[in-house]
Amino acid sequence: MLLPVAILFGLSAQETVMTSPTSRITSAGNAGTLLATPGPADTTPMVTRHELDAWLARELQVHRIRDYCPNGLQVEGRAEIRRVIAGVTASEALLQEAVRMGADAVLVHHGWFWKSDDVRVIGTRRRRLKLALSNDINVFAYHLPLDLHPRWGNNAQLARVLGLAPDLLPDDDASKPGQPLTAGPEGLLWIGRAPGLSTVGELAERVAQRLQREPLVIGDRDAPVGRVVWCTGAAQNMMEDAVAVGATVYITGEASEQTTHMARETGVAFIGAGHHATERYGVQALGEAVARQFGVEVRFIDIDNPV
Ligand SMILES: [Zn+2]
């Protein structure tokens, strides 16, 4: 459950500004503080909705990935975009922040319209949609395409944050030079090592320190760290795929009741590092790429989530 917005602004929402050198933003270091000096509309860097949608679709290879939500523009807002709010989830709190900051678009990993959703426009769906539609805000969402992207993706960025070294496909695979070695459905599992760390306990400490959240650890903390397999978010049901490719440790966001038994019975250590905590970084990297490409202002807003 989300905290009341007033509390989020004061204590929990953290923002990171990703602007290009040409941006008109002067400073915005504090949570909930907007210190903008918007220039004349005709000189502020701008991208059209259509151009941004097309660029993101191409860069993230959206057409190649089968998903259970629409990836790309989910809700159409104004045609010209100068200010973007990036976040993990298009929650009501994130939309409120976007409205408060006068954003033209939100860019998220978890959007709306999931396959299993009730399609009626009532309750939370109505409130979220109303915020977007009545304020003419575009909603762009990238789910699996953002998990999978070899540079900006959640798995790639989690590796960077945790200092994991992904294994790469052999050089003789000319079609995919420098691509990560992956496994599991859609290649969602990344495989690699944890250089400089020798035990599962040390890896767990690294996770706690870098993600600022105590992980759930199931397994022997003194066991050698060996081969690490990871997938951000709720990928606990892919642990068997991780075991099949020789993992000694499996890192994902969430756990289920049976995850405990899977870890105990296979001897593969499980680290549950948080769904939100493991998926904060892909959308930030994507936001930075958008800011670099188009010169528009992009801010990452972290709506705190203990899950
Ligand atoms: Zn997720």
* CATH C-level label of the largest domain: Alpha Beta
Q: DSSP strand (E) fraction?
A: 15-25%
How much helical structure, as a percent, in the residues?
25-40%
Alpha-beta content class? alpha/beta
Question: What does it look like?
Answer:
Helix 3 (92-100) runs parallel beside helix 4 (123-134). The protein has helices at residues 5-12, 49-59, 92-100, 123-134, 144-148, 154-162, 200-211, 239-244, 257-266, 275-278, 280-294, and strands spanning 14-18, 25-27, 35-36, 47-48, 72-75, 80-81, 83-89, 105-110, 138-141, 165-166, 182-183, 189-193, 216-218, 228-230, 249-252, 269-272, 297-302. The protein is an alpha/beta fold and 307 residues long. Helices cover 33% and strands 21% of the residues. Residues 1-13 and 21-37 have low confidence and may be disordered. The chain folds into two domains: 5-142 and 282-302, NIF3 (NGG1p interacting factor 3)-like (Udp-n-acetylmuramoylalanyl-d-glutamate--2,6- Diaminopimelate Ligase, Chain: A, domain 1, 3-Layer(aba) Sandwich), CATH 3.40.1390; 154-273, Udp-n-acetylmuramoylalanyl-d-glutamate--2,6- Diaminopimelate Ligase, Chain: A, domain 1, CATH 3.40.1390.30. 44% of the residues are buried. Strands 10, 11, 12, 13, 14, 15 and 16 form a seven-stranded mixed sheet that branches. The longest helix has 15 residues, at 280-294. It is globular and about 60 Å long. Helix 8 (239-244) links the parallel strand 14 and strand 15 (249-252). It has eleven helices and 17 strands. Zinc ion binds at residues 110, 233, 275, 279. Zinc ion (ZN) binds at residues 110, 233, 275, 279.
